Predict the structure.
Amino acid sequence: MSSLRHRGGDLYPGEAFTPPVAIRPFSLPAFILNFAAGCLMPFAFAPYDQQWLAPLALVIWLGLLLRTHAPFRLSFAFGLGWFGFGSWWLAVTFHHYGHLPWSAAIAFQLLAGVVLAIYPALWGWLARKLSRQDTLALLIIFPLLAVPEEWLRGHLFTGLPWTELGILTLNTPWIGWGSVVGGLGLSLIPALLAATLVTGAIAWQQRALRAPALVMGLLCLLIAVTAPTPDTPTSPPIQVTLVQPNVSQDAKWDRTRLTTIMQRLVTLSSGIKSGAGKSDLIVWPEAATPFFLSHAPGWRQWLRKQVEHWHTPLLFGGLRQMEDGTASNGAWLLVPGQQSIPFVGKHHLVPFGEYVPSWVPWLHKLVPDIGNFQPAHDSGVVTVPRGTTPLKIATLICYESIFSDEMRTRILHGANLIAVLTNDAWYDRTPASWEHLQASQMRAVESDRFVLRAANTGVSAIIAPDGTIRTTIPWWQQGVVRGVVHPISTITPYVHFGDWPMLLFSLLAIVFLCTRLTVKFRTTEGILP
């Protein structure tokens, strides 16, 4: 068998590069090191916000990937650290609110981590497979694969794009591109930064790949300095009030505490009729009224009286019993002087939380507290009359705010403002509430809309179109968030085209590189395929 050689001149003439010596097919120290690198990833997201840890973790993974003959297992270790360790809060939710014993709760949480770890495993395996032992090709293909990998994670088996890589670009110079390529497209940036650092390290140590290192560094800089910025809104300002009642999950569904909860919501909403506190819209969180409105005429009339007294529309989370007897989780809109009470339902339900997937019907017997809700098929937009320019509010309920497509469909139905109604008490005092908040920040950037995020226990916030938080209050504290927003009607490129342009670009770029590599291996002797 001929000796293994890498000729960097195939892509960049005149630059030879000796690749790192490949380690054993399976190396336990490398597996442990990459697992530890994956464990750094959750700390790059909120509430820790140590974003620099993500490129560092990816650099470790990519460096090990250059050396290993077992890319799938090595990359699985990274994913296990990222998702197996990073999703520890799921065990808390399963135990406290799913009423599972700790052993079962931890087992289900680890199972979720194992399943999610498959995506980075495929990412790393494909990067090595497609690059055919060409170091430079691997360093280019690795960031390009971030986009299809994150797309798969967000769509396969109903999808779970939690802690999407693109979210790490919030509050960075690259975030402006979110309105063009979305959070999915921005997933390329952290991976590209890592590939640039690794290429730069190789160039420094071996004086090889200097031109690619320079090009990749300039590309990162160019993407940052050319990022679009949102236009200054010109529409009339809207005063809004978001209510955070801070009701624990156990108390929320306790009928003996219903009157106390409703009185708290109304008390927090007071003081809006005049002066600096006057509001044009009040927003209560998900399931603020934990009952079927059609079955509670007394409460319905009481709510209508409050709205008439305030002279202010109220958007609030609640339940609706459908004609077939099933339940829908969603939002109601009460408008002063309007008899009808419009309702929009939740489209993207939480699997194993709000329904049991058809392929595991037996799970209801194992965890009887799983809900049995039905997805809605309405536009997801409610209209608040307001002169010649009514407010059209895209209403996202809790979990579905992590899905950009849910936002896009509502904006394309004419929404000029986004409201996220959520109950994050499920997560207790874990980082999950803050990770969930970052998804709403990305939806603001993608849509170029203000986002009103009303959360039961926090984090409630008014989010600007550039993804920054304008106003908020501490979580697990009663209070209100008041501020000014502007309805915006422009359609961003991302809302119009979605993920497909960036996904196709990544796939076509990979196909082009693979074609070049195929030609190279057919014409170059001494390089193992």
Remarks:
- Confidence is low (pLDDT under 50) at residues 1-18, 362-370, 525-529.
